[in-house]
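#onboarding

Welcome to the new folks! Below is a worked example of what a typical request in this channel looks like: someone posts a single protein sequence, and someone else replies with the predicted structure as tokens. Don't worry about understanding the tokens yet, we'll cover that in week two.

Example request:
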Amino acid sequence: MVVITEKRVSPCSSKNVAGDCKSTCNVKLYQHWGHTGDAGAIYGLDETGNFMGYFENHATSSTTTADENCMAVGYSWWEGNNNGNEHGDIKMFRNGYRKLKPEKEGLEPRSWNDDLDGIRFQTVPSATSSQMQYHIEIPVQTPHNYFSPINIEDDGGKVKDDNGTKFNPCPGASAKYFNSKSGVRCIYPKTASALQTLHGTTKKSNMAAMHTSLADTFCSDSNNVFYSPGGQSCLERTEGKRLAKTYCQAGSKINGSDENCTKENLGTDNYDSLAEVYCAANPNDSFCSCYNVVMDKCVDDSITGVAGCDHASGKAYVNNRNATPSDQKSLWDGQRKCGSVCTGADKYIPDNNQAGCKTTIQICSQTFNVDNMSNSDIKASCELNASDGSSAGAPPPTPPSSSQLSAQEEIDEAKAALARGDAGAQEKLDAAEAALDAADEAAGETGPKAYIPKSLDGLKNNKKQQIGAGAMGAIFMACCMMILLIVVSASGGGNGGNGPVARRFSK
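Example response:
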């Protein structure tokens, strides 16, 4: 376990640089709300150091990369510590991109826009050789202990479900901890009594799947064949699953058409083997969409083919890959599965389906077709530096002022309202555009500076920036392109049998 210290340490990327933290547990904070790929990133931090700060209350969004082995939290008061006492508010960071403005996440009592002072990381203990572990899905909620945020200790070790009702996520467990991926890690001894306790408890979240998985692990030891982990003896469970496999392998029962043929009834190994055989023989069944993509059955430059190839995330993958220079297209290899095709119900989702997914793909090129960018699972942005490429020797453009950024946010929100048909949306848009013009003038950008492209949005929506780039239709430009694959959370089915989790995709 990482030793908790109360010292400032250097972040893994510098201020105003997006950077790429190397740890499997890291948090990137962004000053520019909703623009995760631009120069508004203010810090990237990882668990090479335990406590990080001070952020001066400038973070409006964040991207967390985490597995179940770590817990990351933020504080409104630098260390969450004032003279040895808990102070301020504490935030649970969860895997994926999150807006700190203006939404509340999960069961948080407040939003966190511009109110982060520090971050702490803590390593989550794992099961030993004599133990078993499983991960329970819970919503974001306030951690119990400011100084050891992995500890689950309130109300006898209870957490909250989606309705805010408290429950014990790990009945019969020898230990339980918060983590930044699923929410809770349960550690059980390899004993029948512990599993019997779990079996006899009212189930919440994916606790039923946890009992099935742990009982299978327990019963896989031949020494336990005559013991009962709850419900049936290991002998009965083993024989029952054999018969269930024989039943479910007939026809298309495994694809969800027969409610008896579930992973809980069959066991993970039997379910996976039947699903793989079925999908190999029936690739056009929507049940097999994730499996097909994971197994690379879709042509890289096409959205036609077997089930899953025409998924929205596949379309985004093809568009962005096709827009990438040919000598760098290989950077996209194996990334098609990293979209939302492997989330949701009524499909087979193989374990470890996100293996090899990249958090960031950086492409530097002299030309890039901006018009090929489309709403997708993939966040695309272009960061320009006038001192690079063909503009060598020219000074870089001045970063947007806070007034310009605020006005642009208001424009974006007004455009969204206009698209929804909200009353007064056009008036709000006109006022926001006028505010941006005023902010540009105040920043001295009424002349040539107003024509310097500053972002992908600017190139698509700002007429002056379009003129400056020399195009009103298809736009080609010298740039450094950063494409962020925003994986909000682990896909369902994998990850030890935990349920599917939705993903956020935006441009």
